Amino acid sequence: MQTLYDEYDKEFLAFVGNNELRIPVDTKTGKALGLHARSWRKVTGSTVQWQRAKGTGKVISYVEFHRQYAEDFPIPYTVALVELAEGPQLLARLAHVGDDEPEVGMAVSARFDSKGLIFHPFSQ
Amino acid sequence: MRHKPIAAIAGLGFSELSRKPIGTSRELAAAAVEAAIADAGLKKTDIDGLLINRSPIADPDEVPLRLQNDLQLRNLGLLAAIDSEGSSAVQMVQYAAMAIRQGMAKSVVCVFSDTPVKASGGGDSFAIAMPLTGVEGWERQQGFLGASAAYALAARKHMARYGTTQHQLGAYAVSCRKWAALNPQAFLRKPLSIGDYLASPMIVAPFRILDCCYPVNGAVAIIVTSVRCAVNGPHAPVYIHGMGQGHRGRSGLHGDDDELGSGAQQAARMAYKSAGVVAADVTACQFYDAFSYVGILALEEYGLCKPGEAGSYVADGHTAPGGTLPVNTGGGHLSGFYLQGVTPLSEGVIQVRGAGGERQVVNNDLLLVTGSGGCLDYHSCVLLSPHAALH
């Protein structure tokens, strides 16, 4: 299926391309919006802006791929659903560090590699 | 007498079902419709409504509205494609029932057709990037590919919160296989033990291959009519007593809501209320269970088990043959065949008719049939019964 990007998608992906994780935040209330809440972008007078996220969060769930679906993603690899410190949740790859197994509740921090965003386990 | 049916299902038709290429989706759709019209004892001139459910991963032109011309249906007062992914098949029946109730149509044929299994196999058709995050292209960039990954993510949350185990997912697959063994139409009938399940390859942990549906090529059509018309048909009517929908989207990814509580709860409330029943009145279930976890979750979402208790309920054998609440009596999506929403719907019709043969449930008084689309985004359900009046 064809992917139909709009400016919202392009902006977010461009931030990641520049090694920045940004999320929409309502500057009036300080509340971060989930990435699903895209309707603000074309609203006249919207007080929502992309702002740099802290880049820390915790694992809400994760999956480990044991079947290869794409050449550029050799197995095994892990993708986690992370709740960012600001509240919104985001899917991204989770790096394996040493012998540590991923766990729900694990603290993580955002980094960037050649594929874009990747979370690493984070010792607080 | 507490409740009168909304409408009735009078016809059920299958095309050939196969794991090999057997024709186009359009050809198979036409074959299923022809079979359903014959099954209902109707003529094509009796059909005045056509509703089409296309697979969300197929090109819409694979089953075009021009199917009407293929079938020479010239009296349509109702024609539409319903596009709510896996909840569409049940929705077709709902919209048909409402149209009939309003006098807009008398006999509506609802058809789903798909050909996901190509000469190269079936699994890759579902290696899509499900748009979970809200940014187009993000999942592909992260290697988050395949519908199984999206559901596995939801399953892991349930496991972390409630202690649902891999054994319990396996118990669901084993239960479905036991039912499939009794169904000559099921594709996977070889006996399956929990040991077999645990030895099966991991696809996207926590899902093994036996947690995943078994896609086939084929089509199923269902004819919805008025109660009066159904009574005069060759089969005992399948009465539609309750209907509901619930659509909460990917609520869990907003960061302000709980993914585990899906729109199925809303669909359940609406259906039970419209039929004047409660969850405890349901005697058997046909769930849209593309993955083992979805069947377990449905037991909780539709109020048949308390949150977190469905895994042990299944492991205790309640949903298997001889259990207290038969679930997916044809083998469901895991062992029967995966044709999206028409898999549970067709088995519901068969059971309410009492035509289940070896797998016929003892008590078919009230069957819950569900549809589920996206990744737990879109939900629909109907309550079916052989009884014109629910007491």
UniProtKB/TrEMBL annotation, chain A:
Superkingdom as given in the UniProt entry: Bacteria
Keywords for this protein: Plasmid
Domain ChsH2 C-terminal OB-fold: 50-113
InterPro entries, A to Z: ChsH2_C, NA-bd_OB-fold
Protein name in the entry: ChsH2 C-terminal OB-fold domain-containing protein
Automatic annotation (TrEMBL), chain B:
InterPro entries reported for this sequence: Thiolase-like (IPR016039), Thiolase_C_2 (IPR055140)
An annotated Gene Ontology molecular function: acyltransferase activity
Pfam families according to UniProt: Thiolase_C_1 (PF22691)
Signal peptide feature range: none
CDD domains: SCP-x_thiolase
Domain Thiolase C-terminal: 258-385
Keywords (A to Z) from UniProt: Plasmid
UniProt-listed SUPFAM superfamilies: Thiolase-like (SSF53901)
Domain of life: Bacteria
Protein's name in the database: Thiolase C-terminal domain-containing protein
Organism: Paraburkholderia aromaticivorans
